[in-house]
Structure formats: structure tokens, C-alpha cells
Specification:
The chain is α/β, with parallel strands linked by helices and 248 residues long. Helix content is 42%, strand content 17%. It has eight helices and seven strands; from the N terminus they run βαβαβαβαβαβαααβ. The chain has a seven-stranded parallel beta sheet, sandwiched between helices.
Length: 248
């Protein structure tokens, strides 16, 4: 795969995001990172191979703040060739505590911000022909779990939206897909109660995800595949990268 001369925007500088940025940069891409934490982006950008990489602070919980950021980066860097939405929150609450404000915050960061960035990047002059979009969903879009209503709903919404957007944007030569990681060894996952080694949930997950816990690189490999010409006939779909979890 060769991404030389390509400009890729990536939202989220966490475990999967940083692994994806490093892989794309190693393949020649110029990376533009978006995140709310500037120090995290700076650390990732400084480690990327190649030159010309940059970052912009963007608060995905405030949807109206996104468009000015996208306008600035396209003005300064020109039209882009790809977008990866790898930002999100895994907040969990029981139904009795899932009030509107909480639900809205999760949906804003995990879903509405994705739609807003795609809307802005698919305007005339903001993208190059053949642009590809990949959203990071989750197997939670398919599997129910107590206290995860907001999170799972936000990921399922992304999958459904991509099916619609793929048809609408095909006339512009744009493809859109998602990946659905299973349990992955990331900082966010390590903070989750069901990831704690020795817990009943952890043992059950080990049985279901029988190929083992995913590493960020596993997800990055799949994202880059969907961004590349090797997947040129794939659009509007979700690729599970789950160690077999959805089959058991």
C-alpha cells in the first residue's frame, strides 16, 4: 500500500488512533490529527515518520465548534484524501442514571461529531476524488450489555448512517465504511470494569473472543485496508475485527 502524497485526517490520538496514524505515516501519508487534548496529539505527531504532519484542537462534544476547525485545516492543507473517526467515550451508566444530558454527550462525541466532520469534508473543494472514510464502531453495536445503552446505541447509529451515506456520496466517488473492534488493549479499555483481569466478565470475554484480545495494530491494519485501493469495491459496510467474538 502506498499513501504517498495523500492527506489523511484522523480524529482521536488514543491507542487505536495513534497506531493508525503511525501506520499511515509509514506508508507515506501526511497526517492531520484532531483531538481535544493537545499534549496527546503533539506526542503522537512528534513520533510519526515523514514530514508535514500537524494537529488541531477540536472538541467533539461541541458540534458547532467542528466546522471552523475543518474549514481552517482544509484552507491550510488543501483537499483531503481520507478521514478516520477514532474518537469516542465508553461511558457506562444504568438506565436510572442515563438522563438526557448524559445520553446527548455520548451521542455527540461518538456519533454526531462523525456526521458533522463527514458533512464538512464532503463539501466542494474539501476532498480529493476517491476520498475514503472509516469510522471506528464496536462489537457493542451488535451485542447488548447492561449499563452500555448510550455507548452501544452510538456505535450502532454510526453503522446505520454509513450505509445511507455510502449511497448518497457514491456519486462523488467517496467510500465510507466502519470497523467494529472487539476487546482491544487500549487505555480506555483498561479503565473499564469488564476488562479487569480475574473478573467474571473478563473470563467470559476471553472465552467468547477466542482468538485473543486485539491490539491497536490489529485495528489499524483493518482501517488502512479500508482506506486503500485494495478495498475499492467495499462501501457502506462494517468490518468486525473481534477475535471471533461475534461468532460465539
Amino acid at each position: 500500500m502506498d499513501f504517498s502524497g495523500k492527506t489523511i485526517v484522523l480524529a482521536g490520538a488514543g491507542g487505536i488512533g495513534s497506531a493508525t496514524a503511525e501506520l499511515l505515516a509509514s506508508l507515506g501519508a501526511k497526517m492531520i490529527l484532531l483531538d481535544v487534548v493537545e499534549d496527546k496529539m503533539k506526542e503522537v505527531v512528534e513520533k510519526l515518520p515523514g514530514a508535514g504532519h500537524s494537529y488541531y484542537v477540536c472538541d467533539f462534544s461541541t458540534i458547532e465548534s467542528i466546522e471552523p476547525v475543518i474549514a481552517q485545516l482544509t484552507q491550510e492543507h488543501g483537499a483531503v484524501d481520507g478521514y478516520v473517526h477514532c474518537t469516542g467515550v465508553g461511558a457506562v451508566r444504568p438506565l436510572k442514571m442515563s438522563k438526557y444530558d448524559f445520553m446527548l454527550r455520548v451521542m455527540n462525541i461518538n456519533f454526531f461529531s462523525f456526521i458533522e466532520v463527514v458533512r464538512c469534508l464532503t463539501k466542494k473543494g474539501a476532498f480529493n476524488e476517491g476520498m475514503n472514510v472509516v469510522g471506528v464502531s464496536a462489537v457493542g453495536a451488535y451485542l447488548g450489555n447492561a449499563t452500555k445503552t448510550a455507548y452501544c446505541a452510538s456505535k450502532a447509529a454510526m453503522n446505520s448512517a454509513v450505509r445511507c451515506l455510502a449511497k448518497e456520496l457514491a456519486t462523488k466517488g467517496i467510500r465510507l465504511n466502519t470497523v467494529a473492534p472487539g476487546s482491544t488493549d487500549t487505555p480506555m479499555a483498561r479503565e473499564a470494569a469488564d476488562y479487569r483481569e480475574g473478573s467474571d466478565d473478563y473470563r467470559l470475554n476471553e472465552m467468547r473472543q477466542y482468538l485473543g484480545t486485539c491490539q491497536p495494530q490489529d485495528i489499524a491494519d483493518s482501517i488502512v485496508f479500508l482506506l486503500s485501493e485494495m478495498s475499492q469495491k467495499i462501501t457502506g459496510t462494517c468490518l468486525p475485527v473481534d477475535g471471533g467474538k461475534l461468532t460465539s
